[in-house]
Specification:
Blueprint (H helix, E strand, L loop, with lengths): L3 E4 L18 E6 L1 H4 L3 E5 L7 E3 L20 E8 L5 E2 L5 H4 L5 E5 L17 E2 L1 H10 L3 E4 L10 H8 L3 E4 L13 E4 L9 E3 L3 E4 L2
Parallel strand pairs: 5-7, 6-8, 7-9, 9-10
Antiparallel strand pairs: 1-13, 2-3, 4-10, 4-12, 5-11, 11-13
Helix pairs in contact: 3-4
Length: 208
C-alpha cells in the first residue's frame, strides 16, 4: 500500500522562539570530529518548546510522568478541522459524525506561518469550553493545534483535556497538507523522559 509521511513538527534549534519568560533553548556542538574523533551536541531545553505534547501532570494533580503513559495514547486515526479565521472555536453539529472515539483531532488555523513572532504567543484562537467537553465526552486521545495554546491563563481548557486523559499537541506545522485527506494516522511519541510533558517529532501517515 502506497502511503505518504508528512512532518508536522517545527525544527528544534538553539534560541528557538519560546514563551516569554521561559528559559532559552541551548543547542550547541560540544565535540568536533577533527579534534575529538567524533561529533556530539548538547541540548538544554524545557519540555514546552517547539512541537511538544502536554501530559496530564502539566496542569493537574496527576502524578504520572509522560514516560509512564502507554504508547497507545500517542497515536490514532487523524481528523483535521479547518478553523482558519476563527478566534473562538465553537462546537458544530457536524463534529458528531466527523470525530470518533480514540481519534487525534487536529485544528488547522494557519498560524504556523507567524511562528516565533511576538504575536504568535499573545494573539491566538481558543477552544470553547463546550467544544472541549464534547471532545472529552467523545473520549478522543489527542487535541493537536498549529498555534501555542488552546486557551489563556488560568488555562481552563488545558484542565478539561488533561483531567479527561486527552493529551495536547502544540506548535504543529504543515497541517495544510492534510486538507481534504480523509484517511490518515497521527504519531506524536514523546521522549521516554521523567517529565510532565515532552518535545516530539509529530508525523502524519496518509493512506490513499
Amino acid at each position: 500500500m502506497v502511503m505518504e509521511l508528512i512532518d508536522l513538527s517545527q525544527k528544534l534549534y538553539s534560541n528557538i522562539p519560546v514563551f516569554p519568560g521561559d528559559d532559552p533553548v541551548q543547542l550547541k556542538q560540544i565535540r568536533v570530529l577533527d579534534n575529538d574523533g567524533f561529533n556530539d551536541y548538547g541540548l538544554s531545553t524545557g519540555m514546552h518548546v517547539g512541537t511538544h505534547i502536554d501530559g496530564p501532570q502539566h496542569t493537574t494533580s496527576d502524578t504520572r510522568m509522560i514516560s509512564e503513559l502507554p504508547l497507545e495514547m500517542f497515536t490514532g486515526k487523524g481528523v483535521l478541522i479547518d478553523v482558519r479565521w476563527e478566534m473562538v472555536i465553537e462546537f458544530k453539529e457536524s463534529y458528531n459524525t466527523m470525530i470518533s472515539p480514540d481519534s487525534v483531532v487536529l485544528f488547522f488555523s494557519g498560524l504556523n506561518i507567524i511562528y516565533g513572532t511576538p504575536q504568535y504567543f499573545t494573539n491566538y484562537p481558543v477552544i470553547s469550553e463546550e467544544l472541549a467537553r464534547f471532545l472529552a465526552n467523545k473520549h478522543i486521545k489527542i487535541v493537536g493545534i498549529d498555534w501555542f495554546s488552546p486557551d489563556y491563563p488560568p488555562y481552563p481548557i488545558h484542565d478539561i483535556f488533561l483531567k479527561n486523559n486527552i493529551l495536547i499537541l502544540e506548535n504543529l506545522t504543515n497541517l495544510e497538507q492534510l486538507l481534504n485527506k480523509t484517511n490518515f494516522e497521527v504519531f506524536a511519541f514523546p521522549l521516554k523522559i521523567e517529565a510532565d510533558s515532552s518535545i516530539v517529532r509529530a508525523v502524519a501517515r496518509v493512506f490513499p
